Amino acid sequence: MKKNISFTEETIQKLFGHEAAEDEDESRLQEYYFKSNIYKQVTANLSLRILVGHKGTGKSALFKMAMHEDISQGKLPILIQPNDIVDISIDDSNFLKKIQIWTEGLLEIIFNKILVHFEIYDNRVDNNSYKKNPKNFLKFLVNYLNNVNTDNEKTLSSILNFLENPSINVYVDDLDRGWEGRKEDTNKISALLNAVRDISNSNKHLNFKIALRTDVYYLVRTSDESTDKTEGSVVWLAWKNHEIFILLIKRIETFFGRNINEDELLNAHQNQKFLAQKYLKPIIEDYFTGKGKWENAPMYRILMSLIRKRPRDLVKLCTLAAKMAYSRGSSIIQTEDFKSIFEEYSQGRIQDTVNEFKSELPTIQNLLMNMKPNRRERTTQEGYVYTTAELLEKIKNISESSRFVWTNGKSAEPKELAAFMYKINFLTARKETSSGIIRKYFEENRYLSSQFSDFGFSWEIHPAYRWALQPDTIHDIFQNLDLSIDDNE
Questions:
Q1: Do residues 177 and 291 both lie within one domain?
Q2: Residue 416 is part of which domain span?
Q3: Among 236, 265, 289, which residue terminates a domain?
Q4: pLDDT in tens, 255-269
Q5: Which pTM value belongs to this model?
Q6: At 373, phi and psi to the nearest 5?
Q7: CA–CA dist 457, 442 (Å, integer)
């Protein structure tokens, strides 16, 4: 029996989830969290995993779930965040010294967090005793815990359980906060990667899992030859639209108290229309009743075309539309609800992108906003889609009136700006097929733009940004924007 709902603020968040899943109520996160193959790669029992992905792809949420799973498996999870490392001074110009400082600083943080975990507050250990020999850190820790004297039965029991099979997973998250793309920033992250590699390789069962933004890792990888030693530990957090679609279905079904078989849904690539009618229908209208190329298109295809393969985008779209449905007193999110929030959604994605990458290119907003179609492009309907030559020519024209300079002071050339916009997902690679439009993202094919040859692809400004760039002629978007094909890869 269909259950009508009222899209109150509380219901919306419980239904679609918190925009930042790491801030989600833990019990609700465990209900709806979707474990993709990426999750299995990151949680593998290996010494080092480097999780690389854009903001909004779910790096912190993955860590939160992995830590919960560690506890259930008898492993000890340790979370290190920016506030934990404020006292680590890494200003020394010598790279080897930087590695040493990171090594000692991280070991001290880990040791102190372990003491707090076991509620050991009478710490009289000489910190230098384990800093002098980081290769034996875990042995030192085991010996220290074996000699702890305590009357606290809970502490004693926890220590004994840990000592039966001492295993620690250290999660390093959000350390690229404040990243500006400067040489010293790159060296800082490079030294960190070298330090954790050394620690984990010499301390069996002390594993590190580090989350980095895509742009941060890309700059570190291309500027420091030593990172070739950690390349095999990198896991790219790239979603397929079908996976995000299943993620939405799972959130809806668990909200109504129903279970789903994730494997069956993942294998149902050819039946996305059926899945949408079965699982989305209770809360979202089946078809988009607009005009142009969007007329009578399945609503799930509209949603999948507007997200940048980031779960947070889908949560934002559905949340905004649900609020509009609530204002109308409707228990179903309809076409008019989505149409009324497209511009707000688009402006938000522009602002998110500016906030995320202005540290690398201070005048990024000027670049993105000037990519809007000019009068001739609007007249000939050539805006938003470019061949390589057309794209470089447009950027060249923009650069003649606005000088673009990287944070390091180097002038940004048109090819570099094109590659930059592809890297940040403002541009996607595009190919027209008999079935429809295929869009490729930087993290799916990171070398597609290396020489900016065509490779059979043209370049397109992502649909998520169209309303912010063209607010005065919004109706043209429905007439000209091609929807993505179903994700059947």
A1: no
A2: 241-480
A3: 236
A4: 999 988 888 888 876
A5: 0.87
A6: -60, 140
A7: 13
